[in-house]
Each structure stands twice: as C-alpha cells, then as structure tokens.
Write a structure and sequence with these properties.
Chain A contains 22 helices and eleven strands. Chain A has 668 residues and is of the alpha+beta class. The longest helix of chain A has 31 residues, at 201-231. Chain B folds into two domains: 1-33; 34-140, OB fold (Dihydrolipoamide Acetyltransferase, E2P), CATH 2.40.50. Chain B has helices at residues 3-32, 39-44, 128-137, 143-153, and strands at residues 33-37, 52-58, 64-65, 71-77, 82-88, 100-108, 111-117. Classes of the chains: A alpha+beta (668), B alpha+beta (154). Chain B: Heme chaperone required for the biogenesis of c-type cytochromes. Transiently binds heme delivered by CcmC and transfers the heme to apo-cytochromes in a process facilitated by CcmF and CcmH.
C-alpha cells in the first residue's frame, strides 16, 4: 500500500508542478496577482509530495519490501541499515528521485525565503523551476518508475552492487546532486530575468547566494567522489579525467565563473548578459552530466549498466531546456542595457580574465570529453581521450588562472595599478622562491619539472591569499588589537574568498605531491615477507577470515615500521558477497599529514600460499581533500554574509555600500 | 574607453581564449588520442608502437598466472580472432573468464602488454565499444537478459 501511496504522490507532484508553472507565467505577463501567487503554495506542495514519495520508497527499502522491483534489484534483508537507506539513491530510479527531491527543496526555499523578491520575478523563477520539475517527474514516471511491483514477491533481494556498499555512497551523491540541481536556481533566475527583460545589481544579489550554495555543495560532492575513487582500487585514483568525472567538473568550472561574474553585476552593474549566459550554460552542463552518466554512451570506469532509452529522454530534456533558454537569450539579451565602464587593468578586468580562463578550461574539458562521441557518430573510429590530453590542455590554462587569482583581489574597481599590486605581493613571491628551492633541494631533481611549477603555484596561491587578507586588516602596520578588530568586522564574503583561494593552494600542493612523487610496489607476498616502499617497511603477518553482515572477507594484516619504529597496522580486505557473487578489494590506508600509506590485498597466487599485494606511498595526497573541504567552507562562510541575509537591496543601496568584495583596501 | 572599444576588447579576448583552447586541444589530440580496436580489427590495422585500447571477451580457460605471482596472461577474443594479453598487477574485482574487458597498452612482439585493465562497476555493464565489437562479430548477447537468465537458474 505504501509504495502505491508514494507513486500516487509522485503523480500528484507532476500536476502540482504544472500548476506551479503555467498560471504564474500567465499571471506575471498579465499582472494578475492571484495567478502569480499560486506559485508559492504550489512549490511547497510539490516539495511535500515529492518528499512523501521519497519517504515511501525509503520505507520500502528499510523494511525490505521485496514486492517492489527496485528493492528486489538493489537490496537484501541482510544489508546493513546504512546501505538500506543510502541504497535508495544507489540505483538509477532512486538517484533520479533524489534529484527531484533536491529540485523541489530548492524551489520551496525560494517560495519560503524569497519574500523580498519582486512579485513578477518570484512568480517567474518558481514557474521555471516548476517546468524543470515537470520534465524530470515525467522522466521518472515514464522511464524510471521506482514503485513497480513484482508478483509473486521473491523471498530475498539481489543485494546492492557491493562496490557501492561503502560510506562514500551515503555522502557523495547527495552533495553532488545538491550542487547539480542547485545550479537550476541560477538558471531559473536567468530565464526569469530574460522574460522580465531586466537585470540589475539587486537581481545579482538574489542569484549569488543560490549559486554559492550550489557551488559549495558541488565542490564537496566532487571532493568526496575523488576521495572515494582514490581509496577504491581500480577507479583510477583521485582524478582520472574519466567522462563521468568530467561531467561533474564542467558545471563546477562554469559555476565558478558564474560565481565571479555575478560579483561584477552586483557591484558594478556590468557583464550582465554574459552572466545570464553563464547561468544557462552551467545548468545545461549539469543536465549534460546527467545525460552522460545516465545514458552510458561513453566508456567510463564509473559506468553502470544502463538503459539507452533513458538517455534519449534526458537528451530531449536537455535540448528543450538549453535550446529554449538560448533562443530566449538570443531574443532578449540585446535589450539588456550595458552598465559601468572599466579599464582592462581593474577588478572587473581581473574577473573578466578569470571568466575567460575558466570558460576556456571548460571548453577544453568539453572537447576532450565529447570528442570520442563525435568521432563515433561520424564513424571515424573508436577512440578514448585520457589524462595525457587533459594534462596538455587543462594545465596550461589553469596555471595563469591561479597566478591571476592572487593578483585580482588587489586591484581596485574601474581602474587599477598592476605594479603597485605586485609590489604588495612581494612576500608571496619570496614564498614561491623558497618553496621551489626547498623542493628542488630535498627531491634533488626527482619528478618532472612541472612538479616544481606546481609547488610554486601552491605557495603563490596559499601565501598570496593570506598576504592579501593580512593587508586588508593592516596586520603589522597597526596594533594587533586594531587588526583583530578589522578582521572581525571584515565582511564574511572577504573571509570566504580568502579561505577558498588559499584552499586552492592546498589542493594544488596535494595534486602535485602525489602525481610527482608517488611510489608503488606490486609483489606476491607470503606471510612473514617484507616489502620496502619509500623508506617504510611493510611486514605481511598473514590473512585471517572475517564474517561481515552480508559478506565473508579475507583480512590481511600488515605491520608498518620506519627505522625500527612501529608506525601502524594496516588491515586490507578482500570481501566476497554471497548474493551477488562479487569480490571487492577494500584497501587500508594510514594517513599522516604529509603522506598516505596505502595497502591493497589482491588474489592469492595459484598454489594459495602467497597473495598479490599492492603498496603505495602517496606523498601530500590528503591535502587535495583538505583543500576541497576548505573551498566548500569558504563558500559557506561567504554565504553567511550580511548582505545576503538582509533583504530589500534597493534600500540598502541607497544607504551606501558596505558589503563584500568592494570594501576599499586599507589605506596605506 | 568607449563602450564600443570595450566591447571590441572583450570580443578580442574571448576569441583569443577560444582560439587558444582550440589550438591546445588540436595539438594535444595529435599525440594523446587512444584508439580502440577489437581483435578482428587488429588483424588489418597497423598499430605500430602506439598505445591503444583492446576490447572483447576474456576467452574461457585462457587465464593463467605466471610464476612470478603478479603477472597474468590471458586471451581477449571477439570469437572471430584472439589476441594474447599480458598484464602485471592486480586485476579488477570483476575480471572474469567469459566477461567483457577493456585493456590499455601496446603490442610488443605479438603480445599485447597491458598497462591498465579497466574496472567495471557491475557485472551487467559492458563497455559500449566491446558490445559494438561483439555485435560486429555477431555474438552479442544482451547482458541484462543473460543476467536475468543466470539469476533464474539459481
């Protein structure tokens, strides 16, 4: 009964979504207040119905209702509760349900918290959100219904794919989806603004928090996915430039550009039509990511068995959303009035450069990801494009981006003095030289030359961002108490920027360290054997048998020592899941701040007395994710900025600007 | 600066960005594209010393561990032709005889030495290139159907 209730709620949600879109659009065009107001209760009702439906599906998974096909295919009565709940989105149907849940939560949030939005803009934003909802609800109901029953019900289920029975499943998809779907807000605001024919600083101020929230969660989602792929053997490590990874990276790059160009609209009333275009492109890339992942047309280390018919449906959705909004853009964008002027060397100029480089980077990833598809369609052969391509195209664009990122905040609006900005960054320059010199000395020429560039960039980004912050609070130029006071009263967005920019430096440090100086050893080891990797001794103590809830495991024990000192005991496992008859390799990792020791237990050799053992030493790798978490925190801190909480931007503008990144630099 | 002039600058910069992206991509494509071949295509294709991907089914009964314990030898087949493959390292969890596989590496003395054997996420997943190659050889079975069949057998 409960699954039928969930199904029914989902169908109702579709009709409510139609009510959320059509009448408000008509109402906004004819200035009919009552019709416009329908959007608010409709958005809330749609969210409640979708949540109810999602809860029904979760209930079916939790109580192991094996009369529901989705539960049979993806669950098992002995599966741990964590994976019964997170397993709901560990399959195609459930993941689309999670998608629509996120979409309606964002929609309802606008309905509830968007009280200061002009009524027509609010009605139109909600209407566009409603239309996206209609598309995805139709998709679920027609091609991916999770509530289909099986008669007779089997006694037990097929179990969830063991590779997904990992804590990563509980966290990675919700964050990733919140990010993808969060960009739908920027999209809806952009389309609504095009219909209105009006974009002003107030509009940007409404869009910014949503974009920030989406960007922060997407950053977290990507970082967690990268970590999961790193500790799961055979997924290609922390970043493989795999199509599925690129699918999440492209909206992130475009979203980062959007985040920055919206600042220019907000502060200087310029770059309006570009910002609108970016909002459309970012969400289109999110949709395209969904299409690439869900259709399985590209070979990927992260691909699952999928039904190609679903891909076509998403492709049609993508064509309607992107094509429609771009058409609207081409009709309306020329009518947007251009705003403030600026010289090339200025804060605006720096943000334009940021946008150009980010767009170029997005373009290179886009070309590399879709090129195999084009060749295939043109029958020119089957190819794949891997890491070497992206290293050759993405890295040259990323390097100037990071260099400029540190200089940009030093430039003033309208027109600035580049020489003066660079002079103030001398400390960062010294840090770069020192970091490169120390690395070159310690590593004595091992690793590629690019590694030194990476270390230099990391130092530049990290130290340069902190120097800028120190400058802002006049550290060492006034009393410490005074500086502290300034820091406390600095807008949160300034804090957020420093945290996020400095974190990029940390991530670069981790990426460089593990790419340049990783060491590995693959050997067949018998109990008692020793292996030496990067100065650490690994002693293989033996293998024991362990019983899990729905698997049996061989657990190896390794004692790690360095210079006779015991460092850690590592216990990698090989699990065999009885229901799916699949084996998974669970690596064991000992992490210190400076490196990871990583051990994976492979197959036994033919006579069964030895095991294949893979041992890695990954220098600096934890900093990739520490940086990722830092970027997310930067976004969240920025999100708490006062100007996003206080409404009525018009009134505040009249009272004078106090906010954010336009805060004048401390006078010398 | 006038509005017109600024627009011109912006356009110039944007074109520069786009141009450099295209130039970077084209030069990178020259060296970094990895082609995919099935065992049958390998019979007619000159591959030289380039890296490429080989895909097909792991031939039944062909998997052999070498004496060093970490090297595995097996044959990849599309039923019409087969290729000897050697791989040093740990095979992915879902590597099995009779299942689809994609390996990346190069030909060395008539043997395909794999640098990497790509993992799969679930056993019904068949990389699109492999299913295409099998379709061309006329032996493709829908993996989803055969999976339900195995499930029913139990």
């Amino acid at each position: 009964m409960i699954p039928e209730l969930g199904h029914y709620a989902l169908v109702l949600a579709l009709f409510v979504a139609l009510v959320q879109s059509v009448p408000p659009l008509v109402g906004a065009a004819t200035r009919n207040g009552a019709w416009m107001n329908v959007a608010v209760p409709a958005a809330i009702a749609q969210m409640l119905l979708v949540l109810l439906s999602y809860a029904a599906l979760t209930w079916a998974h939790v109580v192991s209702d094996f009369s529901v096909l989705n539960v049979v295919q993806n669950s098992h009565s002995a599966k741990p509760m964590l994976y019964k709940v997170s397993g709901v989105w560990g399959n195609h149907e459930g993941s689309m349900m999670l998608w629509i849940v996120m979409l309606t939560i964002f929609g309802a949030a606008v309905a509830l918290f968007g009280r200061n939005l002009p009524p027509t803009l609010k009605a139109r934003v909600l209407a566009v959100q409603g239309l996206i909802g209609v598309g995805f609800l139709l998709f679920i109901l027609i091609t991916s219904n999770p509530f289909i029953r099986v008669i007779p019900a089997p006694i037990d289920g097929n179990d969830l794919n063991p590779l997904l029975q990992d804590p990563g499943l509980a966290f990675h998809p919700p964050f990733l989806y919140a990010g993808y779907v969060g960009f739908s807000m920027a999209f809806s605001f952009a389309v609504a603004a095009l219909i209105e024919g009006r974009v002003d600083p107030a509009w940007a101020r409404w869009v910014r928090p949503w974009t920030l929230a989406a960007w922060s969660t997407l950053t977290m989602g990507i970082a967690m996915g990268s970590w999961w792929a790193y500790y799961e053997l055979g997924w290609g490590g922390w970043w493989y430039w795999d199509p599925v990874e690129n699918a999440s990276f492209m909206p992130w790059l475009a979203g980062t550009a959007l985040l920055h160009s919206a600042i220019v609209v907000e502060k200087r009333d310029a770059l309006k039509s570009w910002t609108i275009l970016l909002a459309i492109v970012t969400f289109s890339l999110s949709l395209m990511g969904t299409f690439l992942v869900r259709s399985g047309i590209l070979t990927s280390v992260h691909a699952f068995a999928v039904d190609p018919k679903r891909g076509i449906f998403i492709l049609v959705l993508l064509a309607i959303a992107t094509g429609g909004s771009l058409l609207l853009y081409s009709l309306r964008a020329p009518t947007l009035k251009a705003g403030g002027l600026f010289a090339p060397i200025s804060r605006e100029g720096a943000l334009v450069l940021n946008n150009l480089l980010l767009s170029t980077a997005t373009a290179t990833v886009f070309i590399g990801t879709l090129y195999p598809l084009f060749l295939d369609i043109l029958k020119l052969g089957k190819v794949s494009v891997g890491a070497p391509f992206f290293n050759a195209t993405f890295v040259p664009v990323a390097i100037p981006m990071v260099i400029a990122m540190v200089v940009g905040p030093y430039l003033s609006w309208k027109r600035a003095d580049l020489g003066a900005a660079l002079t103030r960054l001398w400390v960062a320059g010294v840090a770069v030289v020192a970091a490169v010199a120390v690395t070159a000395y310690v590593k004595a020429g091992s690793g590629p030359l690019l590694a030194l560039v990476g270390i230099g960039l990391a130092a530049w980004a990290f130290v340069g961002s902190l120097v800028e912050f120190a400058d802002r609070i006049a550290l060492f130029r006034t009393s410490f108490k005074n500086s502290w006071n300034r820091a406390v009263h600095l807008p949160r967005s300034a804090w957020g920027m420093t945290i996020a920019h400095a974190s990029i430096g940390l991530s670069i440090l981790g990426m460089t360290g593990t790419s340049a100086w990783q060491t590995e050893s693959i050997t067949a080891m018998r109990p008692g054997d020793r292996a030496s990797v990067a100065g650490y001794e690994f002693q293989f103590d033996g293998v024991g048998l362990v019983d899990g809830p729905n698997f049996k495991a061989e657990r190896g024990t390794f004692t790690v020592t360095k210079d006779g000192q015991r460092i850690a005991t590592l216990e990698p496992e090989r699990r065999s899941y009885s229901t799916t008859r699949m084996t998974t390799t669970e690596s064991a990792i000992h992490t210190t701040v400076f490196s990871d020791l990583y051990v994976a237990l492979g197959d036994p050799t033919q006579n069964g007395t030895a095991w294949i053992v893979r041992i890695y030493h990954h220098p600096l790798v934890p900093w990739i994710w520490i940086g990722g978490v830092g970027m997310m925190l930067g976004g969240l801190v920025s999100l708490t900025d006062r100007r996003f909480r206080i409404g009525a931007p018009e009134r505040r503008r009249a009272a004078g600007k106090t906010g954010g990144k336009s805060a004048p630099l401390p006078a010398e | 600066m006038t509005r017109k002039k600024r627009r011109l600058y912006m356009l110039g910069l944007a074109l520069l960005g786009l141009g450099s992206a295209t130039a970077l991509a084209l030069t990178a494509f020259q060296d970094n594209i990895v082609f995919f071949y099935s065992p049958s295509q390998l019979q007619t294709q000159q591959v030289g010393d380039r890296n490429f991907r080989l895909g097909g089914l792991v031939e039944e009964g062909s998997v052999q561990k070498q004496p060093d314990g970490v090297t595995t030898a097996f044959r990849v087949t599309d039923t019409a032709h087969t290729v000897d493959v050697r791989y040093r390292g740990q095979l992915p969890d879902l590597f099995r005889e009779g299942q689809g596989v994609v390996a990346e590496g190069r030909m060395t003395g008539g043997v395909f030495v794999a640098r990497e054997v790509l993992a799969k996420h679930d056993e019904n997943y068949m990389p699109p290139e492999v299913s295409e190659a099998l379709k061309q050889a006329g032996v493709y079975k829908n993996p989803a159907e055969s999976a339900t069949k195995t499930a029913k057998k139990e």
